[in-house]
Amino acid sequence: MTPTQLKDKVVNVGGITLVSNHEDASNGMLSGGALILIDGYKDGLLVSIPGLEERAISESDTHPIIRGPKDAFTEAIRTNTSLVRHRVKDTRVRVQTIQAGNKTKTELALMYMDEIADQQIVSKLKDKLSNLQVDRVLEGEYIEEVMNQDNKLTIFPMLYNTDRPDTIAAGVMEGRIAIFIDGTPFVLLAPSLFVDFLQSAEDNYQSYLYGSVTRLLRYFCMLICLLAPALYIALTTYHQDLIPTVLLLSLMAQREGVPFPAFLEALIMEVVFEILREAGLRMPRTIGQALSIVGSIVIGQAAVEAGIVSTVMVVVVAITAIASFAIPSYSMSIPIRMLRFGFMMIASTLGVYGLTVAFIMLVVHLSGLHSFGVPYLSPVAPYKPRKQSDAILRFPYQPGAKGP
Fold this sequence. Notes:
The chain is of the alpha+beta class. It is about 50% helix and about 10% strand. It has 12 helices and 10 strands. The protein has helices spanning about 5-10, 20-30, 75-85, 120-130, 140-145, 165-175, 210-235, 245-255, 260-280, 285-305, 310-325, 330-365; strands at about 15-20, 35, 45-50, 95-100, 105-115, 160, 175-180, 185-190, 370, 375. Strands 4-5-7-8-6 form a 5-stranded antiparallel β-sheet, with helices on both faces. Strands 1-3-2 form a 3-stranded antiparallel β-sheet, sandwiched between helices. Strands 9-10 form a two-stranded antiparallel ribbon. Strand 2 and strand 3 form a beta hairpin. Helix 7 packs across helix 12, helix 9 (about 260-280) runs antiparallel to helix 10 and helix 9 crosses helix 12 (about 330-365). It is elongated.
């Protein structure tokens, strides 16, 4: 009996393929498959029978919501693709697998909707993923860094990552390409825009008025996180005449006895808070929460009583920290926090004028970025009127519309 006859008539299981070379056979066995060889034939049968224990589907820890689906991706690529297919029951959905990593042989899966996704972007992604010259792919960041060759000088994320199946399903229906990586619960979405990182899945599950207001609130929080300490430094150092007299007298009274200039004062508090944030993330969850809350209160109060910082500086840093948590995507909050220190340095030397120039340069930089050929600030810049229904604001759904 030939291997083909054995495959078609005897071995009645799914996931069986015909292999004809040693490399495919060894890779299949290393991935949990069984190889069947027949004496006298050069081809073999590779049967997929993985017995790896998988983590149960649970609620998302990184993108929690109040109303909406609670399931999240796991580390198993087959489970993740099935969670999206369960939501998008369309025959045009395509899934293509690719191996990446010379040593890890990590399985990747591209999911997109035929006739809707841009075929040029799909082909470009396939080529880049097929030609990845890396030894290991253990998480999506390995792929992001290699594929982000066109935007090496930016700290902003060019690919959106999430562990929510509903977000990936919505992106696929909009014509984007999802990249699944075996071994990680985070799925990449390409191309990605700046507005994507300030949106939450819950915006589509609540009233459009609530969704629009919360999105505007997130943009406001992003500006606070980016500019609040720098504005305080610039106003108190160079532009005291812009501060109301009563408030200025209060600030002067609070800063009396503080030995450091406003910039060094803000830098100390920001660095201390970043240390507390990082320590809280790396410690066990129950201890980490207590450390972040108690540590912030105790250190802030002790610093004020010791005369190291003023009370208003503690308030500014606290508001900035709270505003940073309002950014839904952790990948976007990281560059905002990094830029905050740069804006503080500019404010300490050039005041409000320097902040204005730096902010304009930041907008120009964002305008020049492209995610797989798509402008990063699209559909705002360049402005596309037909795509404003789910950009900064969320318009109400229209009867007969294809989807959000």
